[in-house]
Amino acid sequence: MAKIHAYLNFNGNCEEAFMFYEKVFKTKNIGIHRFGDLPPDPNFPINDQDKHKVMHTALLIDGDRMLMGSDCLESFGQKINNGNSTYIMLDTETAQEAKDLYQALSENALNIEMPLGEQFWAELYASFQDQFGICWMVHYEGNKKFQ
Q: Radius of gyration (Cα) for the chain, nearest Å?
């Protein structure tokens, strides 16, 4: 079975975001490749201000899940439009894990759609956009099992 990983794109602040996510998920970055590391290609020249930007990075959350990301380069015609078309859902095993993740990820949140609280479908649920424009859901089903 294929594994599903979340891949996030940023407008130049990927490294800052992943330093933040390292603290949230209590794990280390497994590496950073920068656009300046690419072999020179006359068809795709990289300007000096883009060379330090992140081409690819990742956090191994556990043996089966990764959070990956990169900066988009406007010089390559890439542009981020933050919105709510995609969320990362964190389905937690305990109420405390849900509380801890919510508290950490919602620090300086751009928008709290639903603060962490009880819903008819979950003991704890929250949805929000973090300080980097990434949309998250935190969910702890608890005793509200879907039947």
A: 17
